[in-house]
Amino acid sequence: MYKNYFKVAWRNLWKNKVSSVINIVGLAVGMAACIVILLFVSYEKSFDSFHGENIVRLNEVQKWPGLAAPQKVALSMFPMAPAIKAEFPEVKDYTRIKWDDKYQFTYNEKRIFVPEVFAVDPSFFNIFNFKVIKGDALAAITKPNSIAITEETAQKLFGKEDPIGKIINHYGGDTLKFTVTAVMANVPKNSQLQFDALYSLPGIHQKWMDNWGGNWLNTYFKMSPGADLKSFEAKMPGFLKKHLNGDGWKYYELFYLPLKDIHAGSTDIGLDYLNFQKFDQKSTNLFAIIAIIVLVIACVNFMNLSTARSADRAKEVGIRKSIGANRPQLALQFLGETILLSLLALVFAIILVELALPYVNNLSLRGISLPVFSQPLFLPLILVGTILVGFISGIYPALFLSSFKPVKVLKGSVETGKNKGALRNVLVVGQFTSAVFLMIATVFVVKQLKFMQAKDPGFTREQMVTIPLDRISGKGYQLFKQQLLNNTLVAGVTASQDQLGSHLDQNGVTFQYKDSPKKDLAATQLIVDNDYLNVYNIKLSQGKNFSTEKSQNGREYIVNEAMADELLKDHPGATRASLIGQRFGFDSLGVITGVSKNFNFNSMHYKVENLFLVNQSEWGFRKVSVKINAGKSKEAIEFIKATWKQINPDHPFEYQFLDDHFAEVYRADNQVSKIVGILAGLAILISCLGLFGLASFSAEKRVKEIGVRKVLGASVKNIVMLLSGHFIKLVMISNLIAWPLAWYAMNLWLKDFAYHISITWGTFLFVALLSVIIALLTISFQSVKAAIANPVKSLRSE
Questions:
Q1: How far is 681 from 652, CA to CA, in rounded Å?
Q2: Which residues are listed as membrane-spanning (predicted)?
Q3: Cα(143)–Cα(107) distance, rounded to whole angstroms?
Q4: Coil, strand or helix: which one is 376?
Q5: Interval 86-97: pLDDT, tens
Q6: Closest CA to 290 of 437, 450, 461
Q7: What pTM does this model have?
Q8: Which residues of 370-394 are buried (b: 16+ CB within 10 A; e: fewer)?
Q9: Kind plus residue range of the DSSP H or E element containing 150
Q10: Computed from CA positions of residues 200, 96, 504, 246, in that sequence, does the dihedral angle turn out positive or negative?
């Protein structure tokens, strides 16, 4: 019996080639989209899953006076971890991480620079499960001047030599010698902590251990099983009050995040330097929802086409029932056909996934693969999901087809499918509503991204090259700057401690307006050299630039307009110009020499914050900014590289155009826009496939009507409008439903940006026109084909 069912199912699929292809392609595309997004979601969920349970990270909320709003940061103070462990029994253990990027190692004559090195507490391996290949990793983080390195670092530094026991040197602010005691496996890419070597934090950074004022590291705790984080956090104000001097405790809050929530749940936390490939959980959930919508649209196609073609199966049902078949048997047969079709679609979906993954990995910077053999549960889950998709798609058509009465069918008195037209219309509207909604969302997301990238930030970004400095290369900065300026390829050179577009540090300052009492507050700081404003073309609204010679008033400061307004908040009537010459700064007070216009030193997600610039060159710089003349970028880069090698022969030359850095700042937004756009495209494609199938069916069923109309004088245009008008009305209704939904969703989404585009009705009209054109092109093929057909052939049987 089942063999016979299979034969009938296969013959039916082969007989109705158009609808079968539409269903298989639609389901394959929908399944492929779901599988890819499922793999992406699974990859995101896998971050740090190889570690144990009950691991949390300590975070701060800083509420210093002067900040536009309290800010969450991933950093904490050196003495906090041992003090918390000593005072709270909920804490079993802790480890702190102090990181150094672009860390230099030398072995004999070979010198390399590795991306990231961690200094950690001896309990690091009690909390994290990183794999050790050989040697004593515990010794590396317990004994001073010992180190554990990863396989990749060992290969770069020692080649095929055994690294255990070898001595490597680090030349930085201090010259350090390390003995290699262990080799570790390379850190998995789905770990938020990415490092190339580990050494002992207490052994090297002992001088910082009692410093309650600085936030320079990350702190992780191993909590007791069942510990209540909320009640634990409630004890933190008392802890801060006990350990911080004066009223300092009022300006901080402490909170904890479980390790498994950090990767995707900390987008509102700044200075989160160790969170590799951080990605917003909301975006991941959005992708999953849209992928499911795409799959549902494909399922709707099957329901529509199956019920529309019910007349083709009516006599089959009547005959089978008349010779003894019952309704459950027929329903099972039709359901089996749907599941067979779904399984065929799965084969094509797997092929599409394999073709799509390289593009997805390139876009997302992940290493996602199809785990057909690596994860035993993958195939069973996909097969179960496919069968479920087949069941959902086919259950209604199966029940509908199996309900026909054999007497009425065989007499020809049953009007199959006629009463289901309303349901098909509803499903088509639902399909296109989803597709139009996604099209509108894609347009607004792309427009917002372009707006952020194109908006004038208040400084020059074009033709700006940035070069990182460390403690060694920084000593030669002035010579490097002078030699660059001697060449006409270079228009300007300056330096700073931080790079625009990155999260800048905050610092506390004191301000005194005339004879008023001194006021303590905090703001974002940018330590620069004297030429910074000129090179970046940052305009002053009041005062003057930094002096070229040492000021008699001590340090000089330039504040932005937002900072100026904050300083004058308690002095009604005072103007920004009156700030010039007023006492301001940290340590011994300096003076304000100028007020700059506001410029967006961060991304457009955030409003311009209070900022001050100070020319404190003796503190050293970490970024050189070189403005090159347009049209000769290649020659300028070659000249800069040659000059660097001449001054810093032992340091690799690294550079980045500032525009590329800002592209990285908006990388997550760009990823979201592209993925949403792709899914929207798939939704409209599958919807059009369904529309094509229904148009084909409609033209087929009205072939005699069309023949009569042509004989009576109807033109091709009249016939096309007759067949297309109904579907175009459904698409227009879909637009009217999608518009308010999209308007509400986009308003909600744009609130996350401090600077954003306006929602204009032009976009809605454009998408409406585009959707109608797409639908018309989809339908017109069948409509025109039917309209130009010879009416003699269609009327010959009459």
A1: 44
A2: 21-43, 286-305, 330-357, 377-401, 422-446, 675-698, 719-741, 753-777
A3: 20
A4: coil
A5: 999 999 999 999
A6: 437
A7: 0.84
A8: beeeeeeebeeebeebbeebbebbb
A9: strand 146-150
A10: negative
